[in-house]
């Protein structure tokens, strides 16, 4: 599955390697890459890495607003400052996880809730958190900390196909497949939560389904070690 195989590990049968851990804190306890991304130092390292990547590309030289004569075509022709387009995002994701172009694009589409064809720092940060949580087997912790913001991105991206503050089952299904959920788990979720192709989920319903899936994925350890080298800069 898309992000179920990260650099440094494999999603083959048997126990998967644990996610990366680093020494942290005065008592020397180990912290995962996911945990470190929530520290002031970890976020600062991520933000510095992100800004440095942008400064090396053409984005810094673009106008702050699209030209008026572009009309409805401006999303295809304009990338806002401090944002990355889908192809740049694809290259970025593949630094941390082994995935196909299509899988990287699916993740991009899930996070592009403004439908602009570009992701800003908060969306890219959410993507890296998700990959780190998968590799460190901390998807339930990801949901505990970020479910509201994550659901907001997903539901905003569904505003043309679902009721306000709802997300379509099709969108959740894409997420589950990206996380490497096996077919039997998806089938069980469909039965347990009475999912149908036209189902729309409010936040509480989304959290129930996502938590059930995350708990299973954390236990089975289907992901390899997420490579979050920026923490060690």
Topology:
Layout: E1 21-23, E2 30-32, H1 33-36, H2 40-55, H3 74-77, E3 83-85, H4 86-96, H5 101-111, E4 118-120, H6 121-135, H7 139-156, E5 167-168, H8 169-178, H9 183-192, E6 200-201, H10 203-220
Antiparallel strand pairs: 1-2, 3-4, 5-6
Helix pairs in contact: 4-5, 5-8, 6-7, 7-10
Description:
The protein is mostly helical and 233 residues long. 50% of the residues lie in helices and 7% in strands. The chain is built from 10 helices and 6 strands. The strands form 3 sheets. It has a two-stranded antiparallel ribbon. Strand 1 and strand 2 (30-32) form a beta hairpin. It is globular and about 50 Å long. Mean pLDDT is 80; it is low at 4-28, 58-62 and 222-233.
Order of helices and strands: EEHHHEHHEHHEHHEH
Radius of gyration: 18 Å
What shape does the CA trace take? globular
Question: Ends: how far apart?
Answer: 29 Å
- The side-by-side strand order for the widest beta sheet comes to 1-2
Low-confidence stretches: 4-28, 58-62, 222-233
Largest sheet: 2 strands, antiparallel
Quick summary:
This protein is mainly alpha-helical. The chain has helices spanning 33-36, 40-55, 74-77, 86-96, 101-111, 121-135, 139-156, 169-178, 183-192, 203-220, and strands at residues 21-23, 30-32, 83-85, 118-120, 167-168, 200-201.
Comma- or semicolon-separated keywords:
233 residues, mainly alpha, two-stranded antiparallel sheet, globular, disordered C terminus
């Amino acid at each position: 599955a898309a992000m179920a195989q990260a650099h440094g590990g494999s999603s083959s049968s048997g126990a998967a390697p644990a996610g990366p851990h680093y020494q942290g804190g005065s008592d020397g306890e180990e912290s995962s890459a996911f945990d470190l991304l929530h520290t002031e130092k970890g976020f600062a390292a991520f933000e510095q890495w992100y800004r440095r990547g942008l400064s090396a590309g053409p984005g810094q030289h673009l106008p702050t607003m699209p030209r008026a004569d572009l009309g409805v075509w401006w999303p295809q022709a304009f990338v806002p400052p401090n944002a990355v387009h889908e192809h740049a995002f694809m290259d970025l994701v593949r630094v941390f996880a082994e995935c196909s172009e299509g899988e990287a694009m699916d993740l991009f589409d899930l996070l592009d809730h403004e439908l602009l064809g570009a992701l800003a720092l908060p969306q890219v940060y959410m993507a890296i958190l998700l990959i780190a949580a998968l590799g460190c087997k901390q998807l339930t912790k990801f949901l505990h900390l970020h479910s509201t913001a994550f659901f907001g991105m997903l539901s905003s991206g569904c505003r043309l196909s679902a009721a306000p503050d709802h997300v379509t089952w099709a969108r959740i299904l894409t997420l589950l497949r990206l996380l490497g959920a096996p077919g039997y788990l998806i089938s069980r979720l469909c039965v347990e939560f009475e999912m149908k192709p036209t189902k729309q989920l409010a936040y509480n319903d989304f959290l129930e389904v996502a938590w059930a899936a995350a708990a299973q994925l954390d236990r089975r350890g289907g992901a390899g070690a997420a490579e979050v080298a920026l923490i060690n800069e």
